[in-house]
Amino acid sequence: HEFLQAFLDILGKHVIQCDKIAEEMRTGSSRGGIKPSIMAKELGDTDDGDIVKQLFEGTLRSVLICGKCGHKRSQPESFLNISLPLAKEVVRYAKLRLETCLEHFTYPENLVDPVHCSSCAEKTPTQKQHTFSRLPPILCLHLKRFDAAANKKITDRVAYPAHGLDMGPHLPHWCEVVQEIYTEKEKAANQPTTTGVSSPQILYDLFATVNHTGTLYQGHYFSNVNV
Ligand SMILES: [Zn+2]
Q: Where do the USP domain residues begin and end (predicted)?
């Protein structure tokens, strides 16, 4: 997983580099060669033309929700892939499904320590939640098969759909926590009602898998690609 992350990062930067060299050769402005220091600076400063980001990058909405007043603080977090924990899922379910793992990924979690709320002006019990505010053209999901507590690999099978994985229910509008801090009338006026309305379908078909066989200490990777 870390290798994939590093590989995509470097690949994206080199694609930009190649594009820049090709462009400079076309315009004839690089007869004397391109100074490496300038190139490195340009690579670090811009994401324009980074095809890896265009294809794989999405945005999570990370929200802290005050348990006392309902005040929310949100910030965007970009991602190239999503790591889905399996350790707790294995305990809960006999048969694992990718959809269940995604549901749990977007569930709000109660933070152990209270967090300062600017509205309450004190530390309050707080929930944290991640939802998908922008989905990429290619969604890369990683199953975390490393059980750190038991120091072993989780080998349970996880079922996933070959066609039509629906990410619609994981958008902020459809799964973000709404605190019951309004009167019913205020709530109706302030919150869009979703009763009886389904989330939009945002469907992904399975294109490829990367698989690992072996143990934590050795093994092989192989890939299945739908061509
Ligand atoms: Zn508060």
A: 1-227
Same domain, 44 and 78: no
Q: Which helix (H) or strand (E) holds 58?
A: strand 58-66
Spatial separation of the C-alpha atoms in residues 141 and 35, rounded to whole Å: 38
**Using one digit for the tens of pLDDT, what is the confidence trace for 72-88?**
999 999 999 999 988 77
141: burial class by Cβ within 10 Å (0-12, 13-18, 19+)? middle
Q: How far, in Å, is the centroid of ligand 1 from the Cα of 122? A: 8
Query: What would the pLDDT profile of 106-131 be if each residue is shown by its tens digit?
Result: 999 999 999 999 999 999 999 999 99
Identity (one letter) of the amino acid at 180?
E
Q: What is the DSSP letter of 170?
A: G
Please identify which residue in the block is written with the tokens 């890369």: 140
Residues 91, 133 within the same domain: yes
* Whether 185 and 221 share a structural domain: yes
Does one domain contain both 152 and 109? yes
Distance of CA 67 from the midpoint of ligand 1 (Å): 7
63 C-alpha to center of ligand 1: Å? 13
* 202 Cα: distance to centroid of ligand 1 (angstroms): 34
CA 221 to ligand 1 centroid distance, Å = 47
